Amino acid sequence: MNKYQKEENISKVMDTLAQHFNYKERTTLNRMRKKPNAFKVLIACLLSLRTQDKNTEKASNQLFAVADTPEKIIKLPMKKLEKLIFSSGHYKKKARTLKHVSKIILEEFHGKVPNTREELMSIKGIGPKTANIVLAFAYGKEVLPIDTHCHRIPNRLGWVKTKTPEQTEAELEKILPRKYWPEFNALFVLFGQTICQPISPRCSQCPVRKYCPRIGVIRSR
After folding, report:
1. What is the CATH number of domain 3-25+144-211?
2. What angle, 0 to 180 degrees and rounded to 10, lies between the N-to-C axes of helices 181-194 and 3-20?
3. Structure confidence by residue, pLDDT tens digits, 188-208
4. What residue ranges of the chain are covered by domains with CATH 1.10.340.30?
5. In angstroms, rounded to a whole number, what is the distance separating the alpha carbons of residues 60 and 46?
6. What is this structure's pTM?
7. How far is 19 from 21, CA to CA, in rounded Å?
8. Nearest CA among 147, 109, 152 for reference residue 128
């Protein structure tokens, strides 16, 4: 695939996926962009790690009904916090992370979630994807949050040939037109969860099958 073919392929895939997944189907985190609250975006993202979106939404709603600021989360008894976020899975570890992150934001950032990648990642528990989610969804910055779907699928499509999400982010920054950046994460997470799954993707239902060389796909449905 030459440079022109790759650019055309990327545009067709992005436009087709945007039509396939309408805005009502966006993830919990993406819906939060309408009325962005940086702290709530950060906490919801931490809750979303290693779980399905429906669990993120349930845990976030339950937690924010009781505690939606760093002060309130710090004051919550640990057992109550664990119970509120139980549906997100790994709830004991996540509860500790939420307590720590809230404490650091209060003590080192005067209660305001930082708006730079360096400052966000200086807080233990916040990795590159979470930092980029906050920057993109809460602060409207042009960054690419790369999770497992956003890393796997561009490799499957032949857009990149990378080993890590960090490498994928760097390569996509070079080839993905900036007009697609705001929606890239939303579309590829939904696509990866419902159709382009890691093992045995649903290629028979795929809206972009004709643009996909299916690199690394051994079996499909």
Report:
1. 1.10.1670.10
2. 70
3. 988 998 999 999 999 999 999
4. 37-138
5. 10
6. 0.84
7. 6
8. 147
